[in-house]
Amino acid sequence: MKIAFTKLYFHPNHIPEYALFDDIPRNDVVFCGYVGPKIPGSSVEFIQKAEFLPLEYKYLVPETLSHIFFRRPPSTTTPTELVTLEESVRGSDVLVSNELYSFITAQCSRIRSEVPSVRLVVEVWETLFGLPLHWIPFYFNNCVLSKTRSDGFIAHTLRAKEYLRKWGVADKKMAVIYPGVDVETFAPSAKSKHDGFRFLFVGRFDKEKGLPLLLKTFSSSFSGIDDVELWIRAKGSDSNVNSLIRQMSRLCNIKVLDFVSRERLPDLMGACDALCLPSSDKNFGPFKLWEEQFGFVLAEAMACGLPIIATSCGAIREVIGEHNLVVGQNDWHGLANAMKLLYHDEDEIIEISSANRRRAVAEFDIVKQRQKVAQFLEELS
Questions:
Q1: Which of 45, 149, 296, 379 is deepest in the core (most CB within 10 A)?
Q2: What are the chain's domains?
Q3: pLDDT tens by residue, 311-353
Q4: pLDDT in tens, 126-156
Q5: Residue 296 reports pLDDT greater than 50
Q6: Cβ–Cβ < 8 Å for 325, 308
Q7: pTM of the model
């Protein structure tokens, strides 16, 4: 079976999202999409088995308006189409796109209607039904078109499955398949010996990822304690957060790391003792605009045997299971207690570490997850 995996923009930050389709058993896969000049080849290097077909994109609205209203590089919400996609996927048995509201998914839906022999599968990460975005006519039409013309849906969490149900998608057209992690690379074997205790944050500087809360909690809980550190590997920049880091660094041990590539992430996790991800919902008035849809760093940390302290935001509890420490959103007191518990209780660390490794191997092993994708696609054909 020949599969065309379509994506507007292949970015190294999103590599885990499409690695699931890189080496699907009994299938030939071609990746179709744009690779930006700022990341020459870096995404493609992670595609081990599949063919990569670079395509240009075009805006569906005047480019000046797009630059005003939409972020750059373009994302799933940007009104764009892939140039020559129709010709590029000719001869494919299955098209794969992601998200109902995507203009690329709508483009694939039109191809599906013109070529009855091809099947369309939509990956869904989104968990929030009723986003204001959904009711903008262009995006609403994309959702309806994609829902109507797609043959199958891969929901990457149970929350994503519930989202699809609210759009009226039948259960028989859906499969819940968690994304995968290379459990041979992300493994407890990367654990290194060190003195003291290290908490790790991996994420963005954005407020919803909880870094400001974590900094304040760490400072108030471990100020003056020399054998505890907070290591930060964050993407982006925020002047307020940087100022807070400088302020808190005078009181306690905070280490901001230079950019750490994905290849070095297992070693980074192996050098630490617990992962903290105190995410919180992003709201605008009465509307929830964002919640954690999965959180790859959670699955990667579990595969490395790291205990996790996280919040109840989005799909986090579903991903990390019952053994880790979950606190309320924006609950600095609960976060502080959880951090102190792990710092003081080595037996708890050992127990959670073993449980996390078992869960990662059982639920997120990328080899097993690719086999599930292959089975789902075979059942469609």
A1: 296
A2: 2-180+365-380 (3.40.50.2000), 188-363 (3.40.50.2000)
A3: 999 999 999 999 999 999 999 999 999 999 999 999 999 999 9
A4: 999 989 988 999 999 999 999 999 999 999 9
A5: yes
A6: yes
A7: 0.93
- Token pair of 364 as six digits: 């997120």
Specify the amino acid at residue 181: V
